[in-house]
Write a structure and sequence with these properties.
Elements: E1 8-10, E2 22-27, H1 33-42, E3 48-51, E4 58-62, H2 69-85
Length: 90
């Protein structure tokens, strides 16, 4: 499985099958995604929601069509910073 970081991995591993409008990312089970989403919103990062319908610890990110992969990677860098600097462990 492709790992984005030690805390995250894509729900859909094959890039050619990924949505251009929504990114679904598996988050380490030690991290409370509801608290993560609240923290991000409090700090101006929106369009990210927790997602547990598949019985997984995930977030879904609303994307504009044709967003660059580099921009998504920058957002993941922000998430990794939050994971490392702020305690979100359940």
């Amino acid at each position: 499985m492709l790992k984005i970081s030690e805390y995250t991995s894509p729900y859909v591993n094959k890039e050619e099958y990924r949505s251009i409008s929504t990114a679904t990312i598996d988050i380490d089970k030690k991290i409370n995604v509801d608290d993560l989403v609240k923290f991000l919103r409090k700090n101006g990062i929106y369009d990210i929601n927790s997602y547990r319908k598949l019985n997984r610890n995930q977030i879904r990110i609303g994307l504009f069509p044709f967003i660059s992969k580099e921009d998504i990677l920058k957002l993941l860098e922000v998430l990794n910073y939050v994971f490392e600097k702020v305690v979100y462990y359940a």
